[in-house]
Amino acid sequence: MTVKILSITLLLLSVCVCCHSSEDTRVRGPGRIRPCCVGVDKDNMTAEVVGETYREQAARGHCVKAIIFNTKKGQLCADPKAQWVKDLTAKMRKV
Ligand SMILES: *[C@@H]1O[C@H](CO)[C@@H](O)[C@H](O)[C@H]1NC(C)=O
Questions:
Q1: Residue 16 carries which DSSP code?
Q2: Do 12 and 49 fall within a single domain?
Q3: Which part of the chain is the Chemokine interleukin-8-like domain (predicted)?
Q4: Ligand 1 nearest-atom number relative to CA 44
Q5: Is 46 near ligand 1, meaning CB less than 6 Å away?
Q6: How far apart are alpha carbons 67 and 28 in whole angstroms?
Q7: Whole-angstrom Cα distance, residue 48 to residue 63?
Q8: Which of 13, 29, 83, 84 is the most interior residue, by most CB within 10 Å?
Q9: Cα of 87 to ligand 1 centre, how many Å?
Q10: Would you say the CB of residue 84 lies under 6 angstroms from ligand 1?
Q11: Which of 46, 71, 86 most suits a substitution to test ligand 1, by most atoms within 8 Å of the C-beta?
Q12: Rounded Cα gap, residues 92 and 90, in angstroms
């Protein structure tokens, strides 16, 4: 009897662990990785940019080399080679 209860408990326990680990994979999977820029804006977006800092992203996998600015709507991926980007980054601080 005790053995039966024990095995049921173990079974339930392993089911729980199973659920948790699959949830972990989902959370730690690609969705959890910080989204990267897969394309850049070449248009002059100077007016959209807020704040005094920018980030630089290196090309990796499907991510392209980009300068990441903050805008009121979120992050903006900009072309490091665009003149407006060079003008802006010269005035800003890299983080
Ligand atoms: C981009 O636009 C800003 C104003 O919105 C302007 O001051 C700047 O000269 C422009 N830069 C380029 C490279 O066109």
A1: H
A2: no
A3: 33-92
A4: 1
A5: yes
A6: 26
A7: 22
A8: 84
A9: 8
A10: yes
A11: 46
A12: 6
Q: Is 38 helix (H, G, I), strand (E, B) or coil?
A: coil
Whether 27 and 43 share a structural domain: no
| 70 and 90 housed in the same domain | yes
Task: Give the position of tokens 């490091």.
Answer: 80
Q: Distances from the Cα of 85 to the Cαs of 22, 69, 75, 89, 91, in angstroms?
A: 42, 9, 14, 6, 10
C-alpha pair distances (Å), 86 with each of 46, 52, 90 = 11, 14, 6
Please give the torsion angle defined by the CA atoms of residues 78, 83, 87 and 93, in that order, rounded to the nearest 10 degrees.
30
Residue 84 and residue 45 in contact, taking contact as beta carbons nearer than 8 Å: yes
Residue nearest to atom 9 of ligand 1 (CA): 84
Residue-wise pLDDT tens digits, 27-70:
444 445 567 899 998 999 999 999 999 999 999 999 999 999 99
Q: Whose Cα sits closest to atom 8 in ligand 1?
A: 84
